[in-house]
Fold each of these.
Amino acid sequence: MVTLPRIIMLFLVTTLLLGLPTAAFPFAEVRPADGQAPELTLEEAVNRAVESAVKVEQAELDVDKAWETRKAARSGYERYAGVFSDGVYVSVPGVGEPFFQFLSANSGWNISKQQLDLTKDVVALQAKMSYFDVIKKQRSLETAQLALEKAQNDYKVARAKALVGMSSNAEIEAAASRLEQSTSALEQAKADLENAYRSLNKLIGYVPETRPVLTTTIEFVKLEVPLVENKVATALSPNNNPYLWIMKENHELSKYTWTYASVEEAAKLDKDKTSLSYDDARKETRNKIYEMYDSLKTLEKSYESALQGVKAAEEGLRVANAMYEVGMVTKSEVLDKEHLLSQAKDGLLEVKRLYAITKETFEKPWLAVESAG
């Protein structure tokens, strides 16, 4: 029975590796010069991540290996069938196994190139998500700092009132509890930010202690989709979707496999399995596109609500400051408005972050399918 070359089997399982974390870097990490924090744009982070990723380098080596396998298989085939034109699959009577070996190797080479593109896309998405996560954690830290400032002020006020008999021990204890909780929350926010920086640094090749200045902000840029059905049709074409292209290529190859198999019925079952896998991948892709489209529409509405929330909080703070200046409200009320505004900004940033990531996977739906797998 003719079996698939080992290189083909490697390609069939490579997609399972895409969800794994990026490994350590093959070259020296970047250290900040003279303690200066380097500036870093989103584009630079993505480029560095792709250039630094071990799994991208491995995928490139897989392409080279597949090419060498193809060359060897072609030489073996040409000894039987003469000159074979690139890209033309012609079954020559009597050639049999050498022809299939070349066909398998050629398919493996094409799959490896598509797999390389897929790997780069996955790493790029990881870099964007990590970059955005640092920005999110920075914003959360600001809110935690304001919450602590408010809790400290509330505790001081409670103690001052107690001195003149205007507050009870229960009120002081409640204020002390809120202060303790806010202190813990701030420490957690600091730790979360440190971890986010370390994750980003690992992806882009910076030493763990580097704290790059992120210069790209998360913007809300609405994606115009005139007709989602057109997007579905485009995404379901293997020529526009490397994930489906690989699945289809595996199925096409299996059509030849069972022809040369000694146990024909078993090989035919393998062919049917690849057909089912390809059909299932198409269904999953279709479902993911509709799911992401619905998510985008929901996030667009959430963005408008969050934006109005920030504007309302800004106005509330403006009024509170004006009233504080003329002695009509206390410092505690101003701090409360500052904290509410910071929370509103947290919500707006989160909507923008989710929208940017969802839009990325909507435009490259194979990323969503790979993640789900």
Note: DSSP finds ten helices and two strands in the chain.
Amino acid sequence: MDIRERSRSDSLFKIMHTSLFAYLVLLPFPHVTTIKEITFWLAVLFWLMLMPSRSQRLIPVNPATLSLALFMAVALIASIAGVEPVENLKRFKGELLVPFLLFSISATEYNNMTKIKRLLTPLVIAFAVYTIFVIAESFAWGLSYFWDENLRQQVRWLSGYAEMSITLLPLTFGYLLITGTRLRFLVLIFLFLEFFITAAYRNISSFGGSVFVILMGALFVQPRIYRLCLRVLIVIAILISSVMFYTHRDNPAIAEYRLKLYQITHPLEELKKSGGFTNRVPLWKAAVDVIKDRPVLGYGWGMKKYPRIISDGKYLSRWKTDEPEVYKIYSKYRGKYVPPHNLILELTFQSGIVGLISFTVFFVVYLIFIIKTSIRSRSDEDRNFSVMIVMGIIFSFMIANIMSNELGRLSGKVLFVVMGAGTAWIQSKKMKTRL
């Protein structure tokens, strides 16, 4: 590549990165949809203009990316062949095509740790700024702002915080480990604030994913002194939590936490209950019945059609005799949006068993690749990135989505950005090994 071509590529990359930076900073914030659309498609445009100057035209070719492409193809075919194909394709564009493009941009353009840090920085900044808005809003309500569920319908910023924390809290934790020393203290302050707000929110699936990542850190964070510090903090947190659970055992929030902890530690008992896991089990049973009618490719992408389909008289009449708890819920909320709140079931509803299998293969193959590359690496920075950021966010996302589906939302987009960066990191390690 001559000097003129290199200069052109550098200029295009800077414009693309600036557009992508703006999009990622705005990603958590409501009421800026138009600006987000403009900045995202500008980033895509300049990424496409960069294509002739790179060896990887679209995405690196390996079993993980091929399985992702297969899943995208299956979801597209399912959308065209499913119920309401036009609406399906609209949903496919917003909920799958955008994450796929974010994955592709990250996988092709951010191929070293310096660039990867630049890619992740706007997400960490966005979550920190959003946290500032939450704290500022809490001054008008006092501490009850964080605990009282009734207030969440009246406030602007706290609603949805738990869903953001699924990926952004583990990302902030991992970013703390790979960032420069000048920023670490500031990132650490925000990490503590974000952790305590998420804990107070009491969304056990979202918080549980973050706790799992922190426990992973106690085993795998590099260097060893970091692991020791983290273990000490975990012990202190357990002691404080134990004292709070005992001294404030009559507090409604503590009682709710105790109930949810009991539920997740007795899963078989909950699955047998008619309204187990806080009425998730009846929703799951209903989804399984609907999926049985179109098991191969599902109904097409998007859950907007779900209320109409599940309100069909044939299902309600069947549930009235066979599943009274299911009938009670869907007759009361007939025509209203009450989804299964489970990634696997919603994925199968939208793309069938074929889509579920291809999606599972993608994640399994990807994890194998990232684990193998991480084991071979001797760099603390590489280990912290691959294990704590990439694998940590994947596990946190999967744990949280047992009780929800965030694939096409903010957390899903962050997940694909990080997995794309992980793919670029794997490719760069392969190139160095060959050299």
Note: The CA atoms of residues 374 and 382 lie 7 Å apart.
Amino acid sequence: MLTLGSLFDGLGVFPLTASRHGITPLWASEIEKAPISITKRHFPGMAHLGDVTKLHGGKIPPVDVLTFGSPCQNLSQIGNRKGLGGEQSSLFYEAIRIINQMKPIGKMSIGKMEGSGESFQQKAMQSPSPWVQHIQNSRASLF
């Protein structure tokens, strides 16, 4: 059985999709109350870990698949375009920190980063952007 953890979980789209394909969502990290209430309805047994800045990857249950869609306000065309240095989008680095702290369960895979408009694979093929380089330097692989 494959398991999933979801950082910046939002409305729980990654856990919902994963569960429809036989992957068991174990935990999620989100700070907004409304989205958390939705995922609690869909997944009453899924643990909610709270703020990513307060998590230590070595102290959370290991998973086979980790998904995250860090905030895109600083990346989007309608945002301020400060990139990964912006206040919200710099939370991307928290995901990388957590990945590097996590206990290995095998080869962890990371899905598409939401909010970027393109998948990591598409971005990686065009040019090595800072976020692709950080993931390539972490313990994870992209799919």
Note: DSSP finds five helices and six strands in the chain.
Amino acid sequence: MLEARIYVGLRDRDSHEQIFETDRYKAVLKDICKGYATPFSVQVIEGGYFHDDGAWVDENTLLITLIGAPRKTVYDIASDVCTIFHQESVMITCNKVVHFDVRDRRNADRARPSGVCTLPCVG
């Protein structure tokens, strides 16, 4: 199963300012994801970076996590977000994930007393 994360900064690509309140961007983002009928979660991240001219920039970023979405859906959502939020780019990271249901007796038999998950990583 694929976990995709899309990071989108909230500063406009031309004005280099955040135009709207973060909650407004979140609402729009939720509507975009709902339109693709795929499960998602959204987090707000505060951080910063050095601009090409060397100046420090504080930026709010939205992190969209999609688990189990087809790659095309991930790219389509990223493209829509980039266009609607007026961004030069967004960053996408992807990882394979394993679903582990502790209620499943077969999984419980494999658990170690230390509580450490011993399932092999998916490569």
Note: The two ends are 11 Å apart (CA to CA).
